[in-house]
Automatic annotation (TrEMBL):
GO molecular function: oxidoreductase activity
Protein name (record): Sugar dehydrogenase
Family: Belongs to the short-chain dehydrogenases/reductases (SDR) family.
Example GO biological process: bile acid metabolic process
Keywords, alphabetical: Oxidoreductase
Annotated PANTHER family: 3-OXOACYL-(ACYL-CARRIER-PROTEIN) REDUCTASE, 3-OXOACYL-[ACYL-CARRIER-PROTEIN] REDUCTASE FABG
InterPro entries (UniProt xref): NAD(P)-bd_dom_sf, Sc_DH/Rdtase_CS, SDR, SDR_fam
Pfam family, one: adh_short_C2
Cited SUPFAM superfamilies: NAD(P)-binding Rossmann-fold domains
Organism: Bacillus swezeyi
Length: 258
């Protein structure tokens, strides 16, 4: 637990399930106030709110589309109205999109992935930075990226490009706001056992595990632990960094077979 986080307010986008939900609930254990954001999973959002309150924090759920300015503004407005502050912004919302070879990928599919993953993260960071600068808040912005900001993802050029963009988005934001005391970092998870990876069974699971030196899928709670550290003052001298939580996936274990 990180004592400096108690009573602080965080917005976590896409926090009705998966990694986002785990981060929101970990913040609850840190006795933080959390805006739980969802797009369609209202039941998951309610569960997250209940779990946060049971852990000693406070929470409020807000339905919003973070790929749009109005949706992001609604989250910040809710945080200010319910908790009177914004100290932490976690841009977690992500969309995998449909896999396809680049020449078969429709522009609508490309744009949808970019709108949620990259534009949504930019909007969240931009609005959080505005709020913090206006009130001299030494806050933190955390982007949830992917190992695919470094490793190409076949048949998913839109997803890989969006996560590659998040890398330099994070680094540029960190450079722009370091002197103002606003830290900006990212977490790049590997294969995490979430709802979006439920299809990893049988031979598919075996093949995926071959890519991970630790020979195991990660858990959302492990990503959440990294998130809590990065937004705490224990990481107060860390900005512009990407923390890979991937079981060694970016070490390219396939090279061991050569």
């Amino acid at each position: 637990m990180y004592k400096d986080l108690k009573g602080k307010t965080a917005i976590v986008t896409g926090s009705s399930k998966g990694i986002g939900k785990a981060i929101a609930e970990r913040f609850g254990k840190e006795k933080m106030n959390v805006i739980v954001n969802y797009h369609s999973d209202s039941a998951g959002a309610r569960e997250a709110v209940d779990n946060i309150k049971a852990a000693g924090g406070d929470a409020h759920a807000v339905k919003a589309d973070v790929s749009e300015e109005a949706g992001v503004n609604a989250l910040l407005q809710a945080a200010a109205e319910h908790f009177g502050a914004i100290d932490v912004m976690v841009n977690n919302s992500g969309f995998n999109g449909k896999g396809a070879l680049p020449h078969e990928l429709g522009i609508d599919e490309w744009q949808k992935v970019m709108d949620v993953n990259l534009t949504g993260s930019f909007l969240g960071a931009r609005e959080a930075a505005k709020y913090m600068l206006e009130r001299d808040v030494k806050g933190t912005i955390l982007n949830i990226s992917s190992v695919h900001q470094q490793i190409p993802r076949p048949n998913n050029v839109h997803y890989a490009a969006s996560k590659g963009g998040m890398k330099l988005l994070t680094e540029t934001l960190a450079l722009d706001y370091a002197e103002k005391g606003i830290r900006v970092n990212a977490i790049a998870p590997g294969t995490i056992a979430t709802e979006s990876n439920e299809d990893l069974e049988g031979s598919h699971q075996t093949e995926q595990l071959k890519k991970i030196p630790m020979n195991a899928f990660g858990r959302p709670e492990q990503v959440a632990s990294a998130a809590a550290w990065l937004v705490s003052q224990e990481a107060g001298y860390v900005t512009g960094a990407t923390l890979f939580v991937d079981g060694g996936m970016t070490l390219y274990p396939s090279q061991l077979e050569s």
